[in-house]
Design brief:
single chain; six-stranded mixed β-sheet; four-stranded antiparallel β-sheet; 12 helices
Length: 309
């Protein structure tokens, strides 16, 4: 269990506190004192230390420019191997150092899904089946193994029956689910998603988020950066807050998202029901001892007023 960093009243910021000890064999992701500057942008990341255990679902939040995408790109070596710049510290994924192994090698352990699904797709496959099979073929898997992996991945993202459809005939949500399938087919130990629903309409968002929630049941380690905090509140185990390239807060989802004032100070809104409870307590004299982070929790808490049946 991870304990939230302690709140510093003078600044409104959560100051670092070390998490409880995690056995080394449980660690899937380890970052130690990671700092990074792009060739044209200094201090994109500042002294990041982070440990993620097998099967954890981690949400990464922060205002625009906080370093969320950069942090995620360190997990498969794109930072610094592809982008260059100045990198300090150490990143180890599934026992593999990102400085000692190529991005191609790390891809077998870490699957990264981009914000725009068109950035993920090959552009040469003429069908959904071929798109999912493309990466497996490049890795040299035999035909019978490819077929099994492709059909399994397509099923997991809810695209069974779409095998012969062109990737470019799909909706945005369907394309993003296809992008996730191309990653799942390789059977990574870690799935990393960089704002996967940012460019989707409400239906597409719902489709993609439902897939991610289903993947949680498979004990896959997932790191997701997302602005849809109300959705994150329903399924992630732990939240990491980034601000100006550094970790400002980390803790259980509830502990972090109920720090309404702290989050507002850095430009992040808590879930609506959390903010409502905060206002009721602080401006209207209510004394709710618990603060909800999703609708189901809010209903239980507000029933105590006797107004909801």
């Amino acid at each position: 269990m991870f304990v939230i960093k302690h709140y510093e009243a003078t600044t409104g910021i959560l100051k670092p506190r070390m998490p409880e000890t995690m056995r080394k064999e449980e660690r899937v992701i380890e970052l130690e004192n990671v700092s990074y500057s792009y060739p044209t942008t200094p201090n994109a990341l500042k002294n990041i230390t982070l440990k993620v255990g097998k099967g954890e679902i981690i949400g990464v939040i922060g205002p625009n420019g906080a370093g969320k995408s950069t942090l995620l790109k360190t997990l498969n070596g794109l930072v610094p191997q592809f982008y260059g710049g100045e990198f300090k510290g150490r990143v180890v994924i599934c026992g593999m150092s990102t400085e000692e192994h190529s991005v191609a090698e790390l891809t077998t352990k870490v699957g990264l899904v981009f914000q725009n699904p068109e950035d993920q797709l090959s552009g040469v496959a003429t069908s959904v089946y071929e798109e999912v099979a493309f990466g497996l073929s490049m890795l040299g898997f035999p035909h019978e193994v490819i077929r099994e992996k492709v059909l399994d991945s397509i099923k997991k993202v809810g695209l069974s029956g779409f095998e012969n459809r062109s990737p470019f005939s799909l909706s945005g949500g369907e394309q993003q689910r296809l992008a996730i399938a191309t990653v799942l087919a390789i059977k990574p130990e870690v799935l990393v998603l960089d704002e996967p629903v940012a460019q989707l309409d409400p239906i597409g968002k719902s489709e993609v988020l439902n897939v991610i929630k289903q993947l949680k049941k498979e004990k896959l380690t997932i790191v997701i950066a997302e602005h849809e905090i109300e959705e994150l509140a329903t399924f992630v185990d732990r939240i990491i807050v980034l601000y100006n390239g550094g970790i400002t807060a980390t803790g259980s989802t509830k502990d972090v998202l109920t720090k309404v004032e702290m989050l507002k100070n850095i430009g992040i809104d808590s879930p609506s029901v959390t903010e409502l409870t905060y206002v009721l307590n602080n401006e209207y004299g209510f004394s709710f001892k618990d603060s909800p982070i999703n609708l189901s929790e809010a209903i239980k808490i507000y029933k105590a007023l006797g107004n909801l049946k």
